[in-house]
Each structure stands twice: as C-alpha cells, then as structure tokens.
Design a protein that fits this description.
The chain is an alpha+beta fold. It contains 29 helices and 26 strands. Strand 20 and strand 21 form a beta hairpin.
C-alpha cells in the first residue's frame, strides 16, 4: 500500500534525508520517497494487516515526521490538490514576506549603527571583499549621521542588542526551534547551520556588550557582530521566499489544469435546472451546458450540437464537433452551441483528474541522478559542522585572535547551506514535466525524462501511431468473375463479418463494422466469437461458420481462398490491407482497408532524424502496405508483418545490440513491446490517458511530440547537470574560502553577511535556471487544415 503526505518545513537536501530517515524507522514502512520541490512524501507500507493497522501505521509516520521537526498531513490528490497548494502556499509566502521586510529594515539599521564601532576599536574591522562594499557605506553614514560617530560605543552596542534580539526571537525563532528538534533526533539540517552561526554571533556580541571591560582585560578584542545576525536571517528568508514563489511557477501546469474544472454544474432534475457543487454530482446526472461554459464532468452528449475546445487535453487548437453520442471531457470549453450531457465520470474519475495524478507522480519522482544527491545530503551537515569546528580550532591556534576564529566558524556554517543541492534535480523535473504536459505529453515517472535524451532508435507502430487509427474500407473485392455490386452473398457475408467483429477491439474490425453500417446491413450478434492474435476472428453467427482475417488465417481455418487470389493481388497492388471473409468454408470477398496518415507523420519523422535517431516502422500489417507507408513518411527501416510477440522480440534484439530504443504504440496491443523498450510511449486520448502501461503518454497524438520529448529530455538533463555543478561547486569553493584558506596570502576572509548573500543566491540561481525550461517551444503542433 502506498500513501502520500504533504510535508512542510523542508528547505534543503538534508531536510529530505532527515524526513526519509524518520519515516523509514516506523514499523511497517517498506520504503519512502521524499520530494523537496513538491513538498511530498510517498510512503510504501507492508501489504499485510487490515485497514485499521494501515491507518495506524500512517498516523505513526505522521507523528515521526512531526517529531523530526516538520509538518505532515495526508495529501489530497487530483484536482483538489490545487486547493491545498494554491499559489505556492500563500500563507507561507505571506509569512516569509513579513519576516523578510522586518528583518531587512533591522539589518540596515544595525549596519548603520555598527559603522562607528568598526573604526573605534570596538570591531576587528571588515576583512577582504567586504571592505570594498563597506567603504561607500562608511562615507554615506558619515555624511548622513555625523553625530553618530560621537555616541559612546557602549550605547551603540546596547542599541544593536535591542535591534537584534527581536530579530532572533521572531524572524529567527523557527531556525532555533527546528534545530533543537533536529539535534534531539540526531538529524541536523540547514537550519542547524544558520542557528548555530547566528546564535554564536549574537552570544559573543552580547557578552562583549555586557562585560566589555572583562573581555578587554582578557586580551580579547571587543568586536560585536550584531549586524551579521539580521543580515544573515533576512537573506536566508529572502532566498526561501524566492524559492517558494519559484516553486509556485514550477507547479503552474498542475494548477492550470485543476482550475479548468468548474466548481459547480447546472443539473437537470425534475424539469428544472439546479446549480450544484461538483462534489454533489453523480454518474448518470443530466447536465445542461451553455455556450462558452467549461464542461464540469466527463460525459456523453444526449442532445444538441456544438464544437468544443479540447486543447487543454490534446494540445490541438482546432475545435472538435460534438453531437448526440459523442463523449466530452471535464475542463474542455464549449463553443457556440447548447448541449445536454449525461455524466459518466465525476470528481477523481474524470480524465483531467487522472492527468493531474500522473503529473503529481511524475513531479515527485526521483530519477537515478537524485541518488547521488541523497547520499551526499545524508552526511553533508555533520561534515560541515566538523569542518567549522576544525576551522575554529586551527585559527584559534594560528590566527590573530579568538574573534577571527569565531568569525571563520560562523561564516563556514552560513555559507554551507545545502538548499541549492536539494533543489537541483526536483526543480528541473517539475518544470520540465509541467512544460511537456502543456504540450500534451504526460510522464508517469522521472526516469523516462532522464533516459529519453539518450535514445538513438525510435520504433513506430503503424496503425494508430503514424496513421489516424481509424481505418476505412476503400474497396470491396469479390470472387473472380463475380460482380460484387450485384452479389447479395457479399452483403450477407459482410453483415456476418461485422457481427463477428463486434467482439473485436482491433482497429480494422471497426472499419468492417462501419462499412456494414454504411450499406444499411443488419448486424447480428454472434453465437460464439474467438480471436487469434495476428490472424483474425472466427466464430458462429446465425448457424454459419464465419472467418474474418488474413489469407493465411482463413486457409488455416479450412476456408478455400483460391477464388479470392486475384482480389488479394488487387488489394495489395493498391497498398491497402486485405481482410478476407469466409463463410462455411468458402471465400466470399476481400475488403481493401486503408488507414490515412496523420498530418504530421512526415514532419515527425524528419524531426526525429534531425536529432540523430534511426526510425523503424514495425507493423502487423502486410509488408507491401507497411513499405508503402514507410516510403511516404521516410523511415529508415520497415519490418512487417509482425505479431505482438514479434514486436517484443525485435525490440529486445535492438536492445541486445546496444541500441537505446523508444517504442511508440497504441498502448494496448503494443503493451509488451512498450514495456520491453528503454522508453515506451503510448498514443492516447483524453478519456483513457491514464490507463496505459507506458511511462510516457501522448494526450495529443502528434508524432512531432516524440521529438519534443527527446529535446526536452536533453535540455532538462543539461539543466540538472548545470544545477548540480553549481550546487556542488558552490560548496566546494565557498566552504574553503569561508574557512580562510586565502587569508595567509591575501588577507581576505569572507564576511558572514557575504556568506548569507551567496547562500541565498545559490538557491535562487538553481530554481531560476530550472525555470528556463518553461521557454521550451518544441516542434510545433499539427497544422490546421487549409
């Protein structure tokens, strides 16, 4: 059993590691996956036990997370999740904004009051780059507040104490509370670094303020670092504020979809129209839909005609005509006509809710590259604490004074925030997933996004992939010497074949049924009906033994196909798919069936070739038909005919040859081959988008979308690597600088204020870099008809 929790209070990769460890210690938990960007934890429980036991285990997990210093509650899935998350949690954004505003003002006040102390023996003075920034401020302070330089240093220190203490008690309280909880459970995180750093600066400054004479008698400098406390807290808070807003932008795709569903629906009951909340709508209810309104439920049109904008589901900009019997999806927009719908899916059972579920799963996924980050994060904060302690000890022995050693200690703690490390991967995954979703490409997990960029071979199924998947009978060919139009036996055989095909899900079966309906034939239900994969259908109807399928299949079932030989040849020469009908052992007719190509089939193949992929057409159709299609769209290879088993074997053979294979199919009869490929892509429609087994689903059935997937994979992989390079590089460079490795040669030592600014900038830069993926444009959508 898997349950999802909303986790609040996580700020870095170490927080993620702490939450996962806390969950893993709960009895009955078999696995946990925590995502910083999504504020989400997916917890797997053992299958044994009844419902009460599982609820108890979930309560124990929530308690464990809270004990570790974080907030947890059951997560609401689907469309209702947007209510909970809103715009990056408005309460959190508002609270962070207020804390930052107050602390930022206090930081500037503390900076101005500290300027005289930096030159009157009450401060060791800025060292290194900080001095260049402070010099203009020093000149400005002297010009604006000349009397400030005549104030007694003791008064200035107590004034700074009065300004800084409320900052610690209000703006910084959360850091200390979470640090205390984390240390109690031996799970330090970024808050630990900030709390110890600012706490040390404040305590040392308070001691100097309270007993300056004794500090001077001990031979120690009377430095105070009050200004560092509000600056560090304000900049850390600013970084988190910007992160929250950026996370909100990354999740816009989910919220935009969720907000497409109306909150109310106009229900027809007892001859009247009643507006009801969507939660009170039931399957079978009749819904009145006015022009311009959004569809509130999945349903079928009972009456009326209109054209619906389904671009939010399919990515296609062209309105789709709807009449009685047609299906509609929640969230789509009605055109100029009025419709009456019969609800077939409501709430979590709608296509849009399933899409939202897929998006949330994909955004919360952890691709393999995240494992490296998790392993580093698990030891990062303890390692930083050790480095800071060693730095303090070395400079206490070798440095100019104890204040210098404390300064280096505080700076190391503050600069080593692992926020950027924790956001590097999930930020890029979230933005890329949402961007692809807007283009009609849904990912079921993050692994597909990571590996798709390395694909070098794309295998395309024909029917329903490069074609529309709606084959039509273009020619009916009878036995040699028989006039089809005047042969009542052909119509009778076609009606029997259509009855048999009613039990089939194959696209060619629908073509046979539509042809019989077009001719106005009476279709009879079969007494028995059986399917043979790759061959056809056989069964008994109205006392007749009926066989429908390939020539080989009919011969194997005892049907004399010799009279149909010329009909087969004519169908094949016309590059149509021949489907033969046999009744009571006699071959009666051959249907020439053709499935029109998708408008963007050639463009999709060309786009894939530009990306360096080899394109293979793998079809269950006859070879001459498949080769004709292959020539028209320009693939590199054609393999046909191929049964479902043949398709699996072909994909496996390519894999064994070292090829990275992406397989595209209809998600039903191609499911085994989709599973065997490195990346499986199912061509889907909005109503059944969440039912396939492939890790990638094309809601918009565009072949150019495959190239979009590959390009986004490569681009997002580059962004992830850039993020990780920055996150790791920032700490690899920043920690030694903060520890003072350059001081013996340059006299430079980073200021805690600079360290906090750099730390905040690192987190914001990672999120901003990830947001560049929102600019992805792709290959474009299917062209509108002229």
């Amino acid at each position: 059993m898997r349950s999802s929790l909303e986790i609040r209070g996580m700020h870095c990769a170490s927080c993620v590691a702490n939450v996962e460890k806390a969950i893993a210690r709960v009895p009955g938990v078999t696995g946990a996956r925590v995502n910083l960007m999504a504020h989400r934890a997916d917890v797997d429980f053992a299958e044994d036990g009844d419902g009460a036991a599982k609820r108890g285990a979930l309560d124990a997990v929530i308690a464990a997370v809270r004990a570790a210093g974080y907030e947890a509650r059951p997560r609401i899935s689907g469309a209702r999740a947007s209510d909970m998350e809103g715009d990056a949690n408005p309460e959190t954004v508002r609270a962070l904004g207020l804390r930052f505003a107050y602390t930022f003002v206090a930081a500037w006040a503390a900076m101005f009051l500290s300027m005289p102390l930096m030159h009157e023996g009450g401060h060791a003075g800025p060292i290194g780059p900080f001095a260049f920034v402070m010099k203009p401020l020093d000149v400005l302070t002297r010009a604006l507040f000349p009397g400030l330089w005549n104030v007694d240093p003791g008064v200035l220190r107590w004034s700074l104490f009065a300004i800084t203490l409320p900052v610690l008690l209000w703006s910084g309280r959360g850091f200390f509370v979470r640090t205390w909880k984390g240390l109690r459970h031996r799970s330090p995180d970024m808050d630990t670094l900030v709390a110890i750093g600012t706490g040390t600066a404040f305590v040392v400054s308070a001691i100097v303020t309270t007993v300056p004479a004794r500090v001077a008698e001990a031979g120690l400098p009377t430095d105070v670092w009050y200004e560092a406390v509000p600056w560090v807290i304000s900049l850390v808070t600013l970084g988190r504020l910007l992160e929250e807003r950026a996370k909100g932008k990354a999740g816009e795709a989910v919220r935009a979809l969720a907000e497409r569903v109306p909150r109310t629906a106009r229900v027809l009951r007892d001859g009247a129209e009643i507006d009801l909340p969507i939660e009170e709508i039931h399957v079978g209810d009749r819904i009145a839909l006015r022009p311009g309104e959004r569809v509130p439920v999945d349903g079928a049109v009972e009456s009326g005609t209109s054209a619906l904008d389904e671009s939010m589901l399919t990515g296609e900009s062209r309105p789709v005509a709807k009449a009685a019997g047609d299906v509609v999806s929640a969230g789509t927009t009605n055109g100029s006509g009025a419709l009456v719908l019969r609800a077939t899916g409501v709430g979590e059972d709608t296509a849009i809710a399933r899409i939202l579920g897929l998006l949330e799963e994909a955004m919360a996924a952890k691709p393999p590259i995240q494992r490296l980050v998790d392993r580093v994060a698990a030891v990062f904060v303890p390692a930083v604490l050790a480095i800071a302690a060693i730095t303090f000890g070395i400079w206490l022995l070798l440095g100019p004074n104890a204040a210098f050693a404390l300064r280096a200690f505080v700076t190391v703690l503050i600069i080593a925030c692992p926020c950027a490390m924790g956001l590097a991967v999930p930020a890029a995954i979230s933005v890329a997933t949402g961007t692809l979703a807007r283009r009609g490409i849904l990912l079921r997990d993050g692994l597909a996004l990571e590996v798709a960029g390395g694909v070098d071979t794309v295998v395309l199924d024909k029917t329903g992939t490069v074609t529309h998947g709606r084959p039509e009978v273009v020619e009916v060919l009878g036995r040699e010497g028989v006039d089809v139009d005047g042969d009542a036996g052909v119509d009778h055989a076609l009606a029997l074949a259509a009855g048999l095909e009613m039990r089939s899900e194959h696209p060619l079966a629908n073509a046979v049924i539509r042809e019989a309906q077009r001719r106005g034939l009476e279709i009879v239900e079969p007494e028995t009906a059986f399917a043979q994969s790759g061959g056809g259908m056989f069964g008994k109807i109205a006392g007749h033994k009926v066989r429908v399928g390939t020539e080989e299949f009919l011969r194997a079932k005892g049907v004399d196909t010799a009279p149909l030989r010329s009909a087969f040849e004519r169908a094949e020469s016309a590059h149509t798919t021949p489907v033969a009908i046999g009744v009571d052992g006699a071959g009666i007719a051959v249907l020439g069936i053709r499935d029109p190509l998708r408008d963007d089939a050639r463009a999709g193949v060309d786009a894939l070739r530009r990306l360096g992929a080899r394109i293979v057409l793998l079809s269950g159709d006859r070879r001459n038909v498949a080769e004709a299609v292959g020539r028209e769209i320009g693939v590199d290879e054609v393999h046909a005919p191929a049964s479902p088993e043949d398709k699996v074997a072909f994909v496996q053979r390519l894999t064994e040859e070292g090829r990275s294979v992406l397989m595209v199919g209809d998600g039903i009869n191609d499911a085994p081959a989709l599973a065997a490929a490195r990346v499986g892509v199912a061509m889907g429609g909005g109503t059944d988008v969440a039912r396939g087994a492939a890790p990638v689903i094309l809601v918009s059935p565009r072949l150019t979308a495959i190239a979009d997937l590959l390009r986004m994979s490569r681009r997002s992989t580059r962004v992830i690597r850039q993020n990780l390079a920055w996150a790791f590089g920032y700490n690899v460079l920043g920690i030694p600088l903060a520890a003072g490795v350059l001081y013996p040669w340059t006299g430079w030592l980073l200021s805690p204020v600079f360290a906090s600014a750099a730390m905040a900038a690192s987190s914001v830069s990672v999120v901003a870099n990830s947001l560049r993926l929102r600019l992805f444009r792709g290959e474009g959508r299917a062209a509108d008809p002229a």
